[in-house]
Amino acid sequence: MKFIKLFLVAMFATVATIASAQGPQGQRPQGQQGQRPQRQRMTIEQRAQMQAERMAKSLELNDEQKKQIYDYNLATYKKQQAEHEKRMKAFQEGQQQGQRPDFRNMSEEQRAEFMKKMQEERKKQQAAEEAAMKKILTEKQYKKWQMQKKAQEMRMRERMQQGQGGFGGQGGQRGPGGPGGEGGFGGGDF
Question: Is the pTM of this model over 0.70?
Fold first, then answer.
């Protein structure tokens, strides 16, 4: 169960990074049934600012804490963007060489090793985030932040079980009868 939870969180980070970096070719056409109009894509600075604003409101942060949260989020988002660009470059190079760096072409051992690396990386990210928040927030704020994170994970888990995707969107489009067939992620298209 812990493994699944970590995998889902790691996948969310990857999907969020990919979605934020996609160009116009990755956008859905507007006006089709069941699809929301496209929002203007935010820069990483705007994302860091928005997250700092949300946390400032929900955790009652002072100005210095808000600035520290912004700085931490900005550094984290920049690192994620660099990692995404590195993965995309490797993917494109693999495509040019006729290779498909995905689960379908991996042996069980390769999949297990890949998942283990993802899990370890996510644990490192979580530990770094926990340490940063512990330094920035008061004890009361930190406890409230932890409760909010757990509540968000529960909501995500419920959405995943309902076939609606993990983080709010119309992931249910990929359920039975949708573009992906039976599964929540498009029938194994990772």
Answer: no
